[in-house]
Specification:
single chain, alpha+beta, 6-stranded mixed β-sheet, 4-stranded antiparallel β-sheet, globular, disordered C terminus
Amino acid sequence: MILRRTEDGVVCYARTGRTVTSHWMDLAVPARVLPPGTVLDGDAVIWHDRRMDFGAVQARASSSLDRARALADRLPASYMAFDVLAHPDHGGDALAARPYTERRTVLVVVLADVDPPLQSVLATVDQDTTLQWYETLQPQGVEDIVAKPSGSAYPFGGRTVWCVDCTIWWTVLKRSTWGDRHFTARVALAESPRDPEEARRARADE
């Protein structure tokens, strides 16, 4: 989902380009804390029974507007940002052409003081950490680890990423090229896969 902060509010777009803001107002309203001109790329996720529930995401996305609102009240969503395409303090729209490692740094800075439900995904360049994520986070609903070339620009109109399974890592990503990959895990929180409600309470207590 693309999340665009405009001068007037926030617009959410599906991968097809369709506007889906009305189905995800629990993400659009909190995103108004971002400065106008910010554009994020990420996933809407729903935390249910202490794990991510992709079925709940699909159910809301395909539902009527009235039902989507009812589902949002029952199971609020989180927005897991894995890229930033534009930001007024970091080059505007030109940010998308900068290397992924630079955009990742900007993403972390932009969301550092933003409360859930907007969060950045975990990311690392360390091989052992990546393997640990794959082995330990699946019970929490994490279905894949994504690898991105560290120097790549944002792939408008396509994807320069690979969903990699640990059984084929060594054929898809050779050890000689491992250092040029940045791995991200789509998890429920930037720092740990906790329940988003627990995270909100923790931030409120700080």
